[in-house]
Amino acid sequence: MGHMGESLAAERRYDAFLSYARADDPDFRQALVDGLDRAGRRVWFDREAMPNCGTTFGQEIRQAIETSDRLILLAGPAAMSSGYVAQEWGYADDIGKPVVPVAHAVAFRDLPDRLRHYHGVDARRRTVDAVVAELARLLAEPVRPLGPCFHLPHRPPHARDRPELLEHLSSALLPDRMRPEDAGRAPRVTALYGLPGVGKSTLAAAFASAVRTRRVFSDGVAWLAGGPGFRPLATARELLRLAAPGAHLPGSDGEVDVALAAALGGRELLIVLDDVRDPDPVLPFVTALGPCGQALLTTLDQAVATALGAVEIAVDQLDDDAARGLLADWAGRSRQRCGRPRPD
């Protein structure tokens, strides 16, 4: 039975899931599907592949996305205003499936911000054959694996999104957000600092676990607990066991910096140092990283960030509206009623 399940799963693998709005140019859509089929690419197209096996439409869509290597988004005017289409490509992006936008009758600037950082296909002034050829080339390339996560904490219930701070972290830590002339000499460490309880660790974990972050750091994302009891030797040995299996493990505090630099200098690795109290014990972890590595730390004390030469990002308390929303979520009540008098 197990072998049969594996065989069925293998048979149902697709090169791409096609996400589209039916109101957008059906002739172009069908020509694209037919062209990719002639090119030997398996595309999940609901008009041709949707089964009825007792599962719901939504279940089949999710499964089809999960069993496809990529998602092709036919970005037309109707697709850009469709909530269903947004759910499809959003789910694919959330679970680590590359999204390939095909701009047809819309400009790239009309794409959602999440998709503007990915390479897309401009189909506005090209023949269908040319678009098919480029898509076939993209589908033939191997998907870059997501970096593994080591000891990352789970997102706490009712955590609030902080998009402006996540954007700051992306600009500081992700090479694709840097100008080429800055990427080589940019600081290798970024620090979130602020009062206890403002959400520094939650924000760091959200950034570290994001698909885009894990795509950049293919050797992994490692969470290291700091605090007053931070032990550099034990932490270094654990980090090397996880992120650099087979590397020499330091036997004393004096060997930590050399062992870390030898094992991590060439790796695409993000190290998150949570609750750093003193810059000196964590310095070997920061200096060990090479041009493809980054460190993110959280601290109560801005002076720690300054001492490490970090990009400093202040994390303030939630504003009143966000704080009321958080309390409402915890209390299980609507945001509108939280902190407001009841109607008579």
Question: Could you explain how this protein is built, in words?
Answer:
This protein has 344 residues and is of the alpha/beta class. The protein folds into 2 domains: 9-140, Toll/interleukin-1 receptor homology (TIR) domain (Rossmann fold, 3-Layer(aba) Sandwich), CATH 3.40.50.10140; 149-321, Rossmann fold, CATH 3.40.50. It contains 16 helices and 11 strands. The protein has helices at residues 2-11, 26-38, 46-49, 57-66, 77-80, 83-94, 128-140, 163-173, 180-183, 200-209, 211-216, 232-243, 256-264, 279-287, 302-307, 320-331, and strands at 14-19, 43-44, 68-75, 99-103, 121-122, 149-150, 189-193, 220-225, 269-274, 294-299, 311-314. The chain has a 6-stranded parallel beta sheet, with helices on both faces. Helix 2 (26-38) links the parallel strand 1 (14-19) and strand 2. The longest helix has 13 residues, at 26-38. It is elongated. The model is unreliable at 1-10 and 334-344 (pLDDT under 50). InterPro entries: AAA+_ATPase, NB-ARC, P-loop_NTPase, TIR_dom, Toll_tir_struct_dom_sf. Pfam families: NB-ARC (PF00931), TIR_2 (PF13676). This is AAA ATPase. One of its GO terms (molecular function) is ADP binding. Residues 12-139 form the TIR domain.
